Amino acid sequence: TVHIFSVASGHMYERLLRIMVLSVLKHTKAKCHFWFIKNFLSPAFRRTITEMAAKYDFEVSLVTYKWPAWLRAQTEKQRIIWGYKILFLDVLFPLWVDRVIFVDADQIVRADMLELAHMDLQGAPYGFTPFCQQPYDREETNGFRFWSGGFWKDHLRGRPYHISALFVVDLLRFRQLAAGDRLRIMYEQLSSDKNSLANLDQDLPNYAQHQVPIFSLPQEWLFCETWCDNSLLAKAKSIDLCNNPLTKEPKLKQAVRVVSEWSSYDQEIKDMAKD
Ligand code: UDP
Ligand code: CA
After folding, report:
1. What pTM value is reported for the model?
2. What is the atom index within ligand 1 of the atom nearest the CA of 201?
3. Most buried of 60, 63, 129, 195, CB within 10 angstroms?
């Protein structure tokens, strides 16, 4: 069984999430178990995902964890979601789950997730994909690569800056290294400065790399048009509809333009809801 974890809030992200689920199912030989953070889901989504689980034969569990009183709270919804994505990996899942793969709701998967479930992470507790690097970087957005200079360049000392849209967690190793405690401690320190952790779920694991190592996944595990050259698209194992700071194109528009199978997945789910 492959365990996939995600989060969504709002009508559009719920629609995208169902498509992400369908894309995973269409490419894997494995049995799938999806885990969603309960807090933000609408009753309508809970109904449709249960229907989908019956039709496509997968497991689904809704999970949550009470934000600890001693951990600095977040007030903005987006930042609460980011917190749930990265801060409680060691306590969200039952102990019998030994690996979990986080996938953003706005993703379309094109490969068998079993590959990630079996990948050797070389002792690291988790694996993330680096932001597209040469020869797959995209020239137009090079100016937005904040991690290539200043604070981040000094801090990373040659390590890559990774994207948090998809990551695989070896939960046994993660607990062994007390990675959850380490991340929460660093979060507590860094978040005392309001200008820190602008992208909480991504900045935190990248910042923590010297203490909590990241295994860098092969580049094709994450194509995102904003940062990657089109030559990577044909090989992409997963596509994220990530925001483009230059064009600010809406996600649904980008989906139809970039991902050839997106509309047929969307239709398949609409048809299912009609039955
Ligand atoms: N998300 C959500 N509702 C929101 C914003 C974000 O559910 O209003 C979740 C969703 O899983 C999404 C992830 O947080 O995929 C990361 O946000 P997003 O994909 O919008 O970031 P981007 O790819 O544009 O950088
Ligand atoms: Ca995304």
Report:
1. 0.97
2. 16
3. 129
Report angle CA 22, 240, 61 to the nearest 5 degrees: 45
Amino acid identity for residue 15 in this structure: R
Q: In the sheet where 223-224 sits, what is the strand order?
A: 107-109, 238-240, 223-224
Q: Summarize pLDDT for 155-196 with one digit per residue, the tens.
A: 999 999 999 999 999 999 999 999 999 999 999 999 999 899
Whole-number Å distance, alpha carbon 104 to ligand 1 midpoint, is 7
Helix axes 43-56, 11-25, angle to 10 degrees: 10
Alpha-carbon gap, residue 46 to 237, rounded angstroms: 28
> Which atom of ligand 1 lies at the shortest distance from residue 241's CA?
23
Closest ligand (CA of 85): 1
Residue whose Cα lies nearest atom 8 of ligand 1: it is: 9
Pick the atom of ligand 1 nearest to 9's CA.
7
Q: Is residue 213 within 8 Å of 174, Cβ to Cβ?
A: no
Burial of 93 (0-12, 13-18, 19+ CB in 10 A): buried
CA angle 8, 10, 15 (to 5 degrees): 70
Determine the distance separating the centroid of ligand 2 and the alpha carbon of 41, expressed in angstroms.
Answer: 17
Contact 6, 36 (CB under 8 A): yes
